[in-house]
Amino acid sequence: MILDIEPVEQARPRAVRRGKRIGMHDPPKVSKFKRELRMLAKKRFDDDPFDGELSVEIKFYRPIQKSLSKVVVKELV
Fold this sequence. Notes:
Layout: E1 14-18, E2 21-25, H1 28-45, H2 70-76
Antiparallel strand pairs: 1-2
């Protein structure tokens, strides 16, 4: 199965004080990614529960970052 979504790094959760309590939340970019990934998975599996063992193999394909040096890019390509 292939989910067509660009991966996002898991950033550190943010803490917010609400009165005497402290709430934790993900940054907006991470939160949006998790919502979209959840919707794609639900659509793909139609909310059917898994029965039995589960094996997962994950591969990420991303464009080469602009911040990498040209030497590193030549080695990757």
